[in-house]
Design a protein that fits this description.
The chain has about 260 residues and is an alpha/beta fold. The protein has eleven helices and five strands; from the N terminus they run H-H-H-H-H-E-H-E-H-H-E-H-E-H-H-E. Strand 3, helix 9 and strand 4 form a beta-alpha-beta unit. It starts with a helix and ends in a 31-residue tail after the last strand. The C terminus is likely disordered. InterPro entries: DNAC/IstB-like (IPR028350), IstB_ATP-bd (IPR002611), P-loop_NTPase (IPR027417).
Length: about 260
């Protein structure tokens, strides 16, 4: 018995190409002749599910806009006095904080790994099938400034940043940005009240008061983050000298176990 081209076209039409491929592989393997029917069907179904998940993860990675997809929580250095334990990394990897819309502040000097950790969290969120967006604040500010004369487009852009389950803002307030852009960032943080935002900055939150010209805005931002956020202070040696952190790793396209994923909608 073999599947015909017509059969394979039907699988393709039903978007079950991988299911058909695995079934044909089982048919062609004499060693599988005595396997149970249920076992064969399960194998094909799981293969189809994994193929679907891999495609979705690849799509989420592209949409996220991450600078690198090589960053991984599994490779973050917790053996030195980095300020973050392996247990904390495991808890972040569970993604419970994303499910509950908790914010995360990563504060540390240049080279302590805050940007790496921020992007690793973004990569892991995509692998766990959470829609994610990544921006350096300076780039986001430029985009907001470019849309200053087009309120409708700016509103649409803002709405697109509110939707993802996770938004990562890297190099937060590392450079000077316009008051207009800062106000849009404030609106964004307020609009994401029920979704998770990661802010990675070399400046302590107290410094933000000196950046926001409107103290009421600063109070609102700090209150929003302090009431709903988790603050992690990073320290230790300069991670930029770690060349092994900038290459692809075997976990890059790994599908996250289903019990660690967000419930499918």
């Amino acid at each position: 018995m073999t599947l015909t081209q017509e059969d394979m076209e039907l699988f393709k039409e039903l978007r079950m190409t991988e299911f058909g491929r695995v079934i044909q592989e089982i048919i062609d393997d004499p060693a599988r002749d005595h396997d149970s029917f249920e076992g064969k069907i399960k194998q094909a179904l799981y293969a189809q599910r994994d193929a679907r998940d891999s495609r979705r993860i690849e799509k989420l990675m592209k949409e996220a806009g991450l600078n690198t997809t090589a960053a991984a929580l599994e490779r973050f250095d917790t053996t030195t006095d980095r300020g973050i334990t392996a247990d904390r990394i495991n808890r972040l990897a569970s993604c419970d904080w994303i499910v509950h819309g908790q914010d995360l502040l990563l504060i540390g000097a240049t080279g302590t790994g805050k940007s790496y950790l921020a992007q690793a969290l973004g990569v892991h969120a995509c692998r766990s099938q959470f829609p994610t967006r990544y921006y350096r604040l300076a780039d986001l500010a430029d985009d907001f400034d470019a849309l200053a004369v087009n309120p409708a487009a700016r509103k649409e852009f803002l709405a697109s940043l509110v939707k993802p389950a996770l938004l990562v803002l890297d190099d937060f307030l590392a450079t000077t940005v316009s008051d207009h852009a800062l106000f849009q960032v404030f609106n964004l943080l307020v609009a994401r009240e029920n979704s998770s935002t990661v802010l990675a900055s070399q400046h302590q939150p107290e410094y933000w008061y000196s950046v926001f010209t409107d103290s009421a805005v600063a109070d609102a931002v700090l209150s929003r983050l302090s009431n709903n956020g988790l603050l992690l202070r990073l320290r230790g040696e300069d991670m930029r000298t770690r060349t092994d952190l900038n290459v692809d790793h075997p976990y890059r396209n790994t599908t996250i176990p289903r019990h660690l994923r967000r419930a499918e909608r």
